Amino acid sequence: MKLDRALLVQCYHNAMILQYKRQLESKGFSVSTEHQIFGLHADLYAEKGSEKRVYEFKVVGKNQYVKGHLSKFKEIVESNGATPYVVYVNPPVEKAIYFEDLDTILASFFLNGELPSELDSLSTHTSIDAIDIDDLTSIEISNGVITVEGNAIISVELQYGSSSDMKLGDGVKSFDNFPMTFRAEMEYCDKYSIVNIEHEIDTSSFYE
For residues 155 and 183, what is the distance between their CA atoms, to the nearest angstrom? Predict the structure, then answer.
């Protein structure tokens, strides 16, 4: 009899939570699973002294994308003085690929490169504020290259008028955010770096 794929995936998910629980306990943390905190359902909560960690485990490729979910998760956890952690479980390979700062890596790539045209056209001076990963839909590793696909929210600052206009009070500044899908090719040498990225940013809400 062939094992049910959904049950296998759930086993990987649960096993990864238990593995993290053991590792954290070995480091002196007090750990609980299926924990209710800050109005959230946390897969795992760890505490040691003044350090508080809240973990969410997500299965790569599972249809669980909810716009803004992880952004809200991180916002609530950080506003309560704890550190949010998102662990991506990648079955059937028995490991989790965890990018501690994938949001920052993506944001830095755009900040250090050319601003996407769909954002540049929104105002006189558009700048990227932050990128929040909502979901990873695929992770592949081949020949040392990690290919990551997922959904994110990109937040921008929109400035209308020149810097002089802003100083004189004639300019206008506002903030907005838009959903983005991406496919990034990354390499790792002491740290992750993006070597190529394909993306689509949906700015249709700006024109409604």
Answer: 18
Which tokens go with 112?
């250090």
Which helix (H) or strand (E) covers residue 150, if one does? strand 145-160
Q: Is the domain of 110 the same as that of 200?
A: yes
Q: Average pLDDT for consecutive 10-residue bins of the chain (208 residues)?
A: 62 87 94 89 93 90 65 90 88 56 84 84 85 83 84 87 58 84 87 88 85
Question: Looking at the structure, do residues 109 and 157 belong to the same domain, yes or no?
Answer: yes
Instruction: Please say whether the beta carbons of 126 and 157 come within 8 A.
Output: yes
Question: Quick one: 109 and 191 in the same domain?
Answer: yes
Q: Check if the beta carbon of residue 46 is closer than 8 Å to that of residue 24.
A: yes
Cβ-based neighbours of 77, under 8 Å, separated by 6 or more: 38, 40, 54, 83, 84
DSSP letter (8 states) at residue 113: S
Q: Which domain, by its residues, includes 174?
A: 102-207
The verdict on pTM exceeding 0.70 is no
Enter the tokens of residue 119.
């954002």
Distance CA 152, CA 180 (A): 5
Helix then strand then coil, % of the chain, to nearest 5: 25, 45, 25
DSSP structural state of residue 121: T
CATH, residue 169? 3.10.450
